[in-house]
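S.,

Sequence below, as promised.
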Amino acid sequence: MRNLIRPLAAALLLSSSLAAPSLAQDNNVIRYVPQGDLRVLDPIWTTGTVTQVFGMMIYDTLFAHDGKLQVQPQMVESWSVTPDNLVYRFTLRSGLAFHDGSPVTSKDVIPSLQRWGKRDIMGQRLFQSIAKLDAVDDRTFTITMKEPYGLVIKSIGRVGGLAPVIMTAKMAATDAGTQVPEHIGSGPFTYDPKEWVPGSKIVLRKNPKYVSRSEPSSWAAGEKKVMVDRVEWTYIPDPATIAAALNAGEIDLWETPINDMIPGLKRNPNVTIQRGDPLGNVGTLRPNHLHPPFNDVRARQALGYLMEQEDYLRASVSSDPNDWRVCWSLFVCGSGNDTTKGTEAYTAGTRAERDAKAKKLFEEAGYKGEPIVILQATDFPTFSAAALVMADSLKRIGVKVDLQATDWNSVLTRRAVKAAPAQGGWNIFFTSGAGVSGGDPFTNPASTACDKAWFGWPCHAGIEKLRDAWTREVDPKKQREVLDELHAQLMEQGIWYTYGQWFTQTAFRSNLKGIQASPVRYFWNVTKG
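The prediction came back faster than expected:
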């Protein structure tokens, strides 16, 4: 009874919080339920998807990715680079203006890039190779490099991570470790802080003075023509309440419906279900390189032989293969950087043969029967199921397992602990990331920079040299050769493994037209009628 009362009470609360029925049917208002509560508004301060959606609505970027993952000019009208690949010259489009009416100039762009460069991993690496940034005039600026660097345009036009949005010079002067106090962008929507109700609602209005590009819209690139007066975000934590509201037409779009709710939504002819992101999400198994047995490469390789991806995907995502795909590439299938170099050994032979290899590798690594501590985030069904699959796989070859059930926030704290597993540390945890950002060998967890690496702290000088060589290479063919060798080394060293790729869905009322299948929810060129 308690389970029935909770969503019913939430639904009644939702109905009372929404505006009058006439406004609910207003074709100039889109009512949107994001995947989480918008608590941080500064898109340079957090990689959280909900904050990045907000940032892309009110700010603009110099370049942007289109649906083919190609970088296209956005705020930039034209650009060039000298033959020695050292000086980049950019000219802004005319007519760009912030929401307060002030023009966007080079003197806004430069501090915006500098602030972003202190927070974002791609920005940090880019600025290591930058000698200086100069404002030539109000619409023209240059970036002078210390050395040729192959990711200049890709970095300042990146998708995923921290988007290099352009702020006013005043806001961009805010310390990179502090959130900006005001949110004045030049993007297609404006934000009024007076209408923000933390934990409940935020309202974004059409910017009537926004100067759009004329090219066809594709993801964050091209035309950004706003077809409605406002987009209202309503945060609702209970999935059953959201589904009921969408079926009733009280909301227009649910960003990430859970799988359990999708069959019911599909039965409603007024609701459309669409795959949200063509690159989906990618699962990650992360071993701890600091302590036995995974401080030995052979034990890490054993995990690779146990990675029966179809088992993980069926258990953690769905029994329907249309919802996922087996993908061994650490650089994400479909990203353009995907490769199978180094994966051949882990996929050859029968399951029994792979189990036998895994068992032998554990023995050779000196495994003495100590329990393998696996962190299981029980409030994240995908991660929880993946932990159970690995636990079963290890037990199958005679390895002792200590499966520690906890919540995801505790995992986030625990994974930073470097102590031995028996003293509060860990051996394995599971997570996932957006495919659109994981396809980059520099921004995904490929770092092996010891204490500076991501949780698990792998340490391998050769891999770091390859990562650095990939960023510096300006010849696409040679860059690809470096990437293949990098992937082979990552697999040989067992730095981490992916347990597959899966695709989230978006649900919306069928009278919404123009919803893009994209990694970030875009509301331009969307009509409601």
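DSSP finds 18 helices and 21 strands in the chain.

Coffee later?
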